[in-house]
Amino acid sequence: MHEPDKRHKNILRADQSLLLVIDVQERFRPHIPGFESLVSSICTLVQAARILQLPIVVSEQYAKGLGPTVSEIKSLQTDDSTGPLWASFEKNCFSALGCNGLKQHLELRGRKQIIVCGIETHVCVNQTVHDLLLAGYQPHVVVDALASRAEINKKIGLVKMLSSGALPATVEMVLFEMLVEAGTANFKQIQSLVK
């Protein structure tokens, strides 16, 4: 078993991580290529976060116009015995850190590794990640759980975030970095999520 303090600082730790789901809302469904696959990837992250007791933060951009968070994700909302693991914030600004109360919520959680997924890579995700970096967080951008309407926008949004210091990840990287080792009860549950 690895001792957490002896692992590289860029490896995710379950006790230091929080999942941030940005603007995966119903009105995007017909406009985002591969939307169903995106939602499936994010549902895997949410289910893993629940197993590993990670806080989950969900933002919604102008919900009146773009609709609520998609039902596939929202149906996974739950609380644990020590308090809510799930917090939702509505916003009009593009960066999720501009949401009223979200920045304070992150500060209260005290977790510095932020696992970022959602829509749109080049707008709300990009601006959120830059604000996270500015605030001293370590964003891990889950590239197979991000989308934009146009592929060039996703590509350049990713390039900009990574150039600024965000760390790239995939759904499987996130899951297995936080698990650390095989053979545990959590490993068996998480492994069942990997398709």
List keywords for this structure.
about 200 residues; Rossmann fold; two-stranded antiparallel sheet; about 20% strand
Termini separation: 26 Å
Mean residue pLDDT: 92
Rounded to the nearest angstrom, the radius of gyration is 16 Å
In helices, the fraction of residues equals: 25-40%
| Elements, N to C (H/E) | EHEHHEEEHEHEHEHH
What is the CATH superfamily? Isochorismatase-like
Name the shape in a single word: globular
Q: What is the fold-level CATH name, i.e. the topology?
A: Rossmann fold
Global structural class:
alpha/beta
Low-pLDDT windows of residues: none
Largest sheet: 6 strands, parallel
Q: What percentage of amino acids are in beta strands?
A: 15-25%
- The domain count comes to 1
Number of strands: 8
CATH architecture grouping: 3-Layer(aba) Sandwich
Written account of the structure:
The protein is of the alpha/beta class and 195 residues long. The chain contains eight helices and eight strands; from the N terminus they run βαβααβββαβαβαβαα. Strands 5-2-1-6-7-8 form a six-stranded parallel sheet, sandwiched between helices. Strand 1, helix 1 and strand 2 form a beta-alpha-beta unit. Helix 5 runs parallel beside helix 6. 40% of the residues are buried.
Write the layout of secondary structure elements.
Elements: E1 17-22, H1 35-51, E2 56-61, H2 63-66, H3 71-74, E3 79-80, E4 83-84, E5 86-91, H4 102-109, E6 113-119, H5 121-134, E7 138-147, H6 151-164, E8 167-169, H7 171-179, H8 185-191
Parallel strand pairs: 1-2, 1-6, 2-5, 6-7, 7-8
Antiparallel strand pairs: 3-4
Helix pairs in contact: 5-6
